[in-house]
Amino acid sequence: MQGSLNLTGHILCAQPQSIDPYFARSVIAVAAHDSSHSWGLIVNKVHPNITITNIMQTTGIDYVDDSHIYIGGPVEPGRVHVIHTLDWKGHSTVAVTPDIGITGDVSILAAIAGGEGPNLYRIVAGLCVWGPGQLDGEYKGLPPWKLEHRWLDAPATIESVFNEKGDSQWQKSIEIVANSVISTWF
Q: What domains appear along the chain, each with residue ranges and CATH number?
């Protein structure tokens, strides 16, 4: 995207005064951002009802893990992706950063169940999708979006994606964004 914003490989953090209740206190890992579309996964909101065991059972994999999956976003809530470290790669893995990828097929679930999956991962249901120019407009607070829709961002790291969850991850991500901005001042 020559001459324009590219947030691929970044985390987006909702502002503290965000007016969108769905995305309030969200941390989103952006998988792709270009002039035609953008998409990513919320990585900090734990799903209250669905466990990894539930996901594995629906794909026919016998594996028990009562950890809860994450809510990836409001679009296609029945679609499952795994955001993970790139010590494991499948044929459909999309590299988001040199260290983090996203895989959306059953091969990664089978690898996890077989003890051959990535060291760090989060299974998420749903995703965030933006149409042409939408993420740029939200990011900049351009009409029809308001300043309260703007996103804060920093490059995604293993720490920002995997080390925390929930509000704690959002708060840490705000700190990461602040430190990233301050580092450009010197």
A: 10-179 (3.40.1740.10)
